[in-house]
Amino acid sequence: MRFSLRAALLLALVCLVALIPMAASDYYISLVIKMMIYSLFALSLQLLVGGTGLVSLGHAAFFGIAAYTVTLISPESGAGNFFFLLPAAIVAAMIYAAVTGALCLRTKGIYFIMVTLAFAQMAYYVFHDTKLGGGTDGIYMYFRPEWRVGDTVLLNIDTPYAFYLFTLALLLLTWGFLALLMRSRFGAALTGIRVNEQRMRAAGYSTFRYKLAAYIIAGGLGGIAGVLYAVKDGYVNPELLAWEQSGLVLLMVILGGTGPLWGAIIGAIALTLLQEAFQSQALLGDIATHWHLTFGLAIIALVAILPKGLTGIPDQWRARRSKPTASSTATAGH
Asked: Where is this gene product found (predicted)?
């Protein structure tokens, strides 16, 4: 009964989101697309942080590498074929994840965080300091790719509404894939590694292989988000691989809550809306020119008030209600 109710609510929510472009302006359509892309990006990191217990500060490398790959191999005239461009970009991100993950995963804790950051910065400077990606100016993608077989176009995402629905479909597929993955034996093994890796090794599990597989999958999913970001703006620059981007998506996961998968989506939506609000002169006036300061203070306050993230609010509320007050304790003592 509870499952069918949740399924009905989820279906209603998806339908509502799909209908937003019917009544919204181009600005709000673009904003919702951005939130969906970052939600997908945050979901990919959630597999590592919430699913496996691996806190990475270099996740933007996969995001940026896939974005650059799809842009670099797109034809300069005419729309490219997404049947080739999307898998190529995902594979590029997964290859980088496999190579770097094989080295990063030999470390733990703060050392793992710093090594992932170092590899991400290496990728950043490859595109920043060479002509491969146009240097600091970045490069443009002049046409949105098409899904086609030969000369037959199966899906054209050049219109804003088509791209909106396409992004929503990929977000739902990613969420469904991760939900099934975490309920599988593989997901149970990842949860065991997060809880107690030594016990899992003692039980005969090759924890390094499981963590590497999760790292590669997360890299591929982060690559999908990078492709969507590149196609959305038609432009990429090295900042997509910068450590600030990795920190931003990590904040999304922490703000939403590292427990349930949908926490990453909640965190991505909340952080994107906060950014937009603090940059809005209509809301904050001249203070908006210093939005980094106010945004940072707001994040510090939210993390302090909500240690379990936004998804932990119901548990926090129930814990406070069930906690006995001083007066009730005194009455019970008499």
From this structure: Cell membrane
